[in-house]
């Protein structure tokens, strides 16, 4: 599988998460809204990682780590509009730190922290709005459409026309 196909796969997963968030908002499942915001961003970054590094995505949920690895690649530096990237980099890095708080662990040591995982509606909706903006910004640095394609003619995302879903 070519890196552009792998990239399309990760975009499809991120778009699926974003579509699922709409269902969760309707159901007022705020903790899961925030969790899937984190997952959508993680999957977007893993797609970019696969594309720009040529390696498989690492088994990590650390979105800041992924972001830094992508920025350090020569391919990203060569293809990105660096002045525009630099102007949004700090906001993105701040968001990545914030969104990591909402990654949920199911490991036993987290049992005592379950009550801290409940999220207010306003917090979830604000994080969702920020997630949409960050994904749009990250996707503005995606490979050109001729290079990144999806297999089997998938539907296009309602979040970003022309992206794989």
Task: Report what the structure shows.
- With 165 residues, this protein is mostly helical.
- It has a single domain (3-139), classed as Nucleotidyltransferases  domain 2 (Four Helix Bundle (Hemerythrin (Met), subunit A)).
- The protein has helices at residues 3-26, 30-53, 63-71, 74-79, 82-100, 121-139.
- The longest helix is centred in the N-terminal third of the chain and has 24 residues, at 3-26.
- It is globular.
Quickly list its features.
single chain, mainly alpha, Four Helix Bundle (Hemerythrin (Met), subunit A), 61% helix, disordered C terminus
- Summed over residues and divided by their number, the pLDDT gives a mean of 85
CATH top level class name: Mainly Alpha
- Per DSSP E runs of 2 or more residues, the count of β-strands stands at 0
Percent helix, as a range, is 55-70%
Count of domains: 1
Indicate the overall shape: globular
- Continuous helix count: 6
Q: Can you identify the CATH superfamily?
A: Nucleotidyltransferases  domain 2
Taking the sheet with the most strands, its summary is: none
The CATH architecture term is Up-down Bundle
Strand content: under 5%
Overall structural class, as computed from helix and strand content, comes to mainly alpha
Distance between the termini: 18 Å
Please give the radius of gyration in angstroms: 16 Å
């Amino acid at each position: 599988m070519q890196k552009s196909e792998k990239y399309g796969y990760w975009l499809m997963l991120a778009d699926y998460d974003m579509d699922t968030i709409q269902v969760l908002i309707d159901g007022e499942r705020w903790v899961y809204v925030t969790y899937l915001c984190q997952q959508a961003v993680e999957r977007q970054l893993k797609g970019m990682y696969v594309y720009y590094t040529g390696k498989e995505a690492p088994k990590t949920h650390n979105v800041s780590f992924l972001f830094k690895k992508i920025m350090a690649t020569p391919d990203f530096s060569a293809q990105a509009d660096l002045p525009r990237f630099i102007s949004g980099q700090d906001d993105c890095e701040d968001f990545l730190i914030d969104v990591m708080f909402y990654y949920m662990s199911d490991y036993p040591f987290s049992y005592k922290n379950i009550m801290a995982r409940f999220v207010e509606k306003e917090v979830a909706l604000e994080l969702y709005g920020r997630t949409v903006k960050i994904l749009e910004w990250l996707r503005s640095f995606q490979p050109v459409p001729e290079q990144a394609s999806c297999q089997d003619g998938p539907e296009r995302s309602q979040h970003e026309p022309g992206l794989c879903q």
